[in-house]
Design brief:
9 helices; single chain; mainly alpha; about 270 residues
């Protein structure tokens, strides 16, 4: 999980709980019928809009977005890896890439296809289709959480109206009006918290993550295409430079041949 997500989630929950606990008991903010209306109604509305499979996939993608992995993500590092591979291919052929470890599953799949003899056009087409499917899944998953963010406050208001109706139907005891009003307002609180502390932030996080992943995958697609065409490393860097500028991190050119020599993948002539 990214630090910003962790800090935001913990801080948001902590601030709300502290505010509830000041001069009152947190137990007074717990109302089971209100929770049933908000949570149950939100789930029902979301299931009407999206299939059960899409809903489960959305939660799966949310965990995938928040988890930490060790894959190579830096754009400059991907370009450096591509230069290593280009030098290997130009010196020893495609099969030489088998012994080069790449800590990126998407990049690895493309390299594996090149090693297996696929044409660079077919590899590029296949990887672009994977990228398109990723964006479609992310769009659907973000839509599921946006649906939750829209439905939760609405059902919170419905719960409040139900509570008000129940309260107004029995006005014989004026002393009970205040507590009954407080209980009725709790459902609005539940809906606002679910929407603004969980659902909508996760939807934005999925969209941001998907865009970053798509940019990275498009860089990798062009990098693998460059390997397949056997470009000169300098030409490859020029072709991939726009991706680095979009990412906002452009590193000065530096030869990678010494890195390959140091790891034993290439040997300089004596």
């Amino acid at each position: 999980m990214s630090f910003s997500t962790l800090i935001g989630l913990v801080a948001g929950i902590a601030i709300v709980l502290i505010a509830m606990a000041v001069d009152s008991s947190i137990s007074m903010f717990v109302n089971l019928p209100g929770l049933m209306i908000v949570i149950g109604g939100t789930i029902a509305a979301t299931m009407i809009r999206y299939s059960m499979a899409d809903s489960f996939k959305a939660w799966g993608m949310s965990f995938n977005v928040l988890k930490v992995n060790s894959e190579v993500k830096d754009f400059n590092e991907i370009v450096d890896i591509t230069e290593d591979l280009l030098r290997l291919v130009r010196a020893k052929g495609m099969l030489a890439m088998e012994n080069y470890e790449i800590k990126n599953e998407f990049y690895n799949s493309g390299v594996r296809m090149l090693i297996d003899g696929y044409s660079h056009e077919l590899v590029k087409q296949t990887l672009r289709e994977k990228n398109r499917l990723l964006m479609e899944k992310a769009e659907t998953s973000a839509g599921v959480f946006r649906s939750i963010g829209e439905a939760a406050p609405a059902f919170g208001m419905i719960g409040t109206l139900v509570g008000l109706i129940q309260m107004l139907s029995n006005l014989s005891d004026p002393s009970a009006i205040g507590p009954a009003m407080a209980v009725a307002m709790l459902t609005t609180l539940y809906g606002a918290m679910i929407a603004n502390l969980v659902a909508l932030p996760i939807a934005d996080k999925i969209e941001s993550w998907a865009q970053n992943e798509s940019d990275r995958e498009m860089l990798i697609i062009e990098a693998i295409d460059s390997i397949g065409q056997g470009h000169n490393p300098a030409v490859m860097r020029d072709l991939l430079a726009p991706f680095l500028q979009i990412n906002g991190k452009v590193k000065d050119r530096c030869p990678r041949k010494l890195s390959l020599v140091r790891h034993g993948w290439l040997h300089l002539p004596i």
